Amino acid sequence: MTSTRRTTKKTETFTDEERAAMKERAQELRTSARRGSRADKAAEEEAAVVAKIAEMQDSDRVMAERIHAVVKESAPDLAPKLWYGMPAYAKDGKVVCFFQSAQKFNARYATFGFNDKANLDEGTMWPTAFALTKLTAADEARIGELVKRAAG
C-alpha cells in the first residue's frame, strides 16, 4: 500500500523591521571596529544615541530623552551605545538596558528593557521589560532605581 503524503515546508521569515534592525546592528559593529581611542568611541557612540533619539516620533522621542537623562544620572558608568538601532546602555561592552521606540517594530507602545547582564534577579521570576506609553515622575524614579540596581 502506497501512501502519498504531502509535506509542506514551513518557512519562517523576518519582518522588514527585524531585517532592518539586523542590518543596523551589523553597521554598528562595523562602525565600532573602525573607531580610534576609547574616549573617541564613547563620544561617538553617545552622539549616535542622541541622533537616533532625535529621529524618533514625538511621544517616543520625549520618553527616550528622559530615559537617556535618567540612565546617565542613575548609573553614570553605563556607556550609551546603539544596539540593533536602539538606544542602549552597556557595562564592560555588554548591554544592560535599552529603549525600543514603538515605531521600531510597529508596536502600540515603547519598551524599556533589561538584558541578562542586568543585576535584577529577584527570586525565580522578575520583569525584564516594561511597556511605556508616557513617563511620569514616579515612572522615572522607578526606572532610575532599576537602572542603578541593574548596573550594580
Can you list the strand order of the major beta sheet?
1-2-3-4-5
Strand content: 15-25%
Care to count the β-strands? 5
What's the alpha carbon Rg, rounded to whole Å? 19 Å
Structural class by SSE content: alpha+beta
Low-confidence stretches: none
Order of helices and strands: HHHEEEEEH
Described by the principal axes of the CA atoms, the overall outline is: globular
- End-to-end Cα distance, whole Å, is 67 Å
Q: Helical region count?
A: 4
Largest sheet geometry: 5 strands, antiparallel
Helix content: 40-55%
Mean pLDDT: 90
Quick description:
The chain is an alpha+beta fold and 152 residues long. The protein contains four helices and five strands, in the order H-H-H-E-E-E-E-E-H. It has a five-stranded antiparallel sheet with strand order 1-2-3-4-5.
3D architecture notes:
The protein is an alpha+beta fold and 152 residues long. The mean pLDDT is 90. α3 packs across α4. The protein starts with 15 loop residues before the first helix and ends with a helix. It is globular. It contains four helices and five strands. It has helices at residues 16-34, 38-54, 58-74, 137-151, and strands spanning 79-83, 86-91, 94-100, 110-114, 129-132.
Core attributes:
152 residues, single chain, 45% helix, 4 helices, globular, alpha+beta
